[in-house]
Design goal:
Elements lengths: L11 E6 L9 E4 L4 E8 L6 E9 L6 E4 L1 E4 L2 E6 L5 E11 L1 H14 L5 H15 L5 H15 L2 H5 L8 H10 L5 H8 L2 H9 L7 E2 L4 E6 L6 E5 L15 H13 L4 E4 L47 H13 L3 E6 L8 H5 L15 E3 L2 E3 L12 H17 L4 E5 L6 H14 L4 E5 L4 H10 L3 E2 L9 H13 L20 H21 L2 E5 L37 H13 L9 E3 L7 E7 L6 E7 L6 E6 L2 H4 L6 E6 L5 E5 L2 E6 L5 E10 L6 E3 L6
Parallel strand pairs: 2-10, 11-12, 11-19, 12-13, 13-16, 16-17, 17-18
Antiparallel strand pairs: 1-3, 3-7, 4-5, 4-8, 6-7, 8-9, 8-10, 14-15, 20-21, 21-22, 22-27, 23-26, 24-25, 24-27, 27-28
């Protein structure tokens, strides 16, 4: 049988943007963002068209409308602004603008000297059709006034809808000249005020809706703009012989707050298994007092819904969450879907695991590495539905304790469809919840996890050190299709990753990576010890830290000589004070003549906040370069004087022209320029930028 044709779809709507995999996945925005929508819209012939965006939050069945405007080559544009943190939906509708088409044709025929009586009558019918059922109040009264001028006979117009049988009466009235002339009627019909009213109450007889309803996940602003700090609560006693507690963490909150961080993130805080427990530096023969790896979750003391008894109680944890909130900090927890052999799940739900032929549960492996202290989960076992529901309930349990941010460990080793289901289940109830994907894996899997719903993702930034690769990678992240759904959270180090660049480059390398992380993306984080320039490797060529906190308690010297805490603090101040740095997809790279210097900037759409960053990528030597500022993009003429503030030193400059020379040394490897004001030689007055945000 031939495919059935839907002849009611008279307008073609295609190539809608933003649309992710035909609406299978949601694009991402934040509350207050503008969602810009484009579409190709056309039909046969020369009729004028109108189009609109229909949009709504998921808990409201009523569509709101935002009109679109023709742009070029059948491309239409429009926008809407979601005002709530939840899932939103939108689609595009279009229809023939019968009144606009009629007005255009009437003007052409009248100007050509053709008879237009029939056209005037048809136009009167259109006005009446809109006025009677659609308009009310003053608008309807005004439309009826226009109708009376076009018809000429008030009695004919007073009835609202004009039947075709009234044509002869109308024609006789015009030909008799008893009321208005044809010229007067045409003038009324072509009045811009009438067109404005008719556009307000359009006739949509052939309304066509795009075949897909497209989702937008609208998150809170912290999804896009935040600074994370990671620490191990058990190391916060500052005594390697005493296990830290939640109270010890509360005592450290001012340290984290004063550096300007927004999110305080913990590795797993649950009970740790004893079977095959790992010792210091990942040894297999731990002493009786060694604490084990936090990712080997579960013991007789409980599992994923419990806290390690040496840290305190669940009540103590809630007290920590509240204390952090009072310091302007949010607590983020690690969500690691893996269990130790001692976990209650291993006894209560053996069907959740992989069983080997000898009846034992298979432990985790990444050959040749073995992780005997943890069991992986079988997400497709006979009892998979109960298991999926339990992991969702683990998240909901911690949301009840006040946690709304989760860093997910190794999500790429679990099914993508599980994450799509679970994240949606949680965010339908608690849209404020943020999920960070810790997936240093294949690019397509990283993208798939972001599409499935992860709010943010780790990136390859940790291993991108040179100008070409940084430019290429961040152009892909922020200016290509990925910017619709992937928010890169930049961590220069993690408990698992002590990059060679930091090991070899020392303090200058830490400064370089700090500037890059804080300004390339609007969301970034560091693992504690980074600000102290800790980079001692386990062994040459290894990216593991010596004496890693993953395997032992640690006592940090928080005032270690050579630390870069003042720089971290200042960078976080700069981020907060300049709106341009709150944006993610506004990153642009600009020319610098030296390949060791990376030059880039961010601007707000209205150009009231403009920040430019130059970074020496070489931790061993100083470099000179010429920076080339994009004056046309900045709204500054080539001969205009402009004032610049360097935000790390407080220096100010008056510059002319777009090319400026600079030298950057390893002990001061970056400059961050804020455009303050300029004088327009063309317009003869000064432009002043927005005041600093406090």
């Amino acid at each position: 049988m031939p495919e059935r044709i839907d002849a009611s779809r008279k307008v073609v709507i295609e190539h809608v943007y933003p649309e992710l995999d035909c609406g299978r996945y949601a694009v991402k925005r934040e509350v207050g963002d503008t969602v810009s929508v484009e579409a190709d819209i056309f039909k046969e012939g020369h009729d004028a068209l109108s189009a609109a965006i229909w949009y709504r939050p998921e808990d409201d069945e009523t569509w709101r409308e935002s009109r679109m405007k023709f742009w070029d080559n059948d491309r239409w544009r429009g926008s809407f602004t979601p005002d709530r943190n939840c899932r939103w939906y939108f689609t595009v509708v279009a229809w023939t603008d019968v009144f606009g088409t009629w007005q255009s044709d009437l003007r052409k025929k009248y100007d050509a000297g053709q008879e237009v009586l029939l056209e005037l009558f048809e136009g009167a019918q259109l006005i009446a059709s809109a006025a009677a059922p659609l308009a009310d109040g003053p608008d309807r009264a005004r439309m009826m006034e226009y109708l009376a001028e076009v018809v000429g006979d008030e009695k004919l117009a007073s009835g609202g809808l004009i039947p075709t049988s009234a044509w002869e009466t109308f024609r006789d009235d015009v030909e008799s000249g008893s009321h208005l002339t044809v010229a007067e009627r045409v003038a009324a019909a072509l009045d811009p005020g009438l067109l404005e009213l008719m556009e307000r109450y359009p006739l949509r007889e052939d309304l066509t809706r795009y075949e897909h309803v497209l989702p937008v996940q609208v998150d809170r602003v912290a999804a896009r703009f935040a600074a994370w700090y990671e620490l191990f609560p058990r190391s916060m006693s500052d005594d390697e012989s005493r296990h830290g507690t939640f109270d010890d963490v509360i005592a450290k909150l001012p340290y984290v707050r004063d550096m300007g961080f927004d999110v305080l993130y913990f590795p797993p805080i649950h009970p740790i298994g004893f079977k095959f427990r790992k010792g210091k530096n990942n040894t297999l023969n731990p002493g009786p007092d060694e604490p084990g790896v936090p990712y080997a979750v579960g013991s007789d003391a409980g599992g994923h819904k419990d806290v390690h008894p040496d840290l305190g109680t669940l009540e103590d944890f809630r007290r920590l969450v509240e204390a952090a909130r009072e310091h302007g900090l949010e607590i983020a927890l690690d969500f690691a879907i893996q269990v130790s052999p001692d976990h209650p799940y291993a006894k209560e739900h053996p069907g959740w695991f992989y069983i080997r032929p000898d009846g034992t549960i298979m432990y985790a492996e990444n050959p040749p590495k073995k992780y005997q202290d943890i069991y992986p989960l079988n997400f497709y076992g006979d009892d998979w539905e109960a298991q999926w529901a339990e992991w969702r309930d683990v998240i909901l349990h911690w949301v009840e304790q006040g946690v709304n941010i989760f860093r997910v460990d190794n999500p790429h080793t679990k099914p993508v469809q599980f994450w799509q289901w679970m994240i949606r289940e949680v965010q339908q109830q608690h849209p404020q919840v943020i999920f960070l994907s810790e997936a240093f894996t294949r690019p397509k899997m990283m993208r798939a996890l972001a599409k499935a719903g992860f709010t943010q993702g780790y990136t390859y930034f940790t291993w991108r050190n040179f100008k070409g690769e940084l430019t290429e990678y961040f152009t892909e992240l922020t200016q290509g299709p990925m910017n619709e759904y992937f928010r890169g959270n930049l961590f220069p180090n993690t408990p698992d990753i002590n990059p060679e660049f930091l090991q070899r480059g020392g303090r200058p390398a830490h400064m370089i990576r700090a500037v890059l992380a804080t300004t390339l993306s609007s969301v970034y984080g560091i693992y504690s010890g980074f600000e102290l320039c800790e980079a001692t490797p386990l062994a040459p060529g290894k990216e593991e830290y010596l004496d890693s906190e993953k395997y032992q308690l640690k006592a940090w010297d928080w005032d270690r000589p050579g630390n870069i805490r003042p720089l971290i603090t200042r960078l976080n101040e700069i981020r907060r004070q300049n709106r341009a740095l709150h944006g993610y997809d506004n990153l642009r790279f600009y020319p610098a003549d030296n390949d060791n210097v990376l030059f880039y900037g961010k601007m707000t759409p209205d150009r009231t906040s403009m920040v430019f960053v130059a970074v020496n990528l070489d931790p061993f030597a100083g470099h000179e370069t010429m920076l080339h500022f994009p004056l046309p993009d900045m709204g500054i003429g080539w001969h205009d004087p402009w004032e610049v503030e360097e935000l790390l030193t407080g220096q100010r400059f008056f510059w002319h022209g777009g090319s400026q020379s600079l030298r950057l040394e390893p002990d001061a490897p970056a400059r961050i320029f804020r455009i303050r004001a300029w004088r327009s030689s063309e317009h003869g007055f000064d432009y002043f930028m927005e005041p600093t945000i406090v």
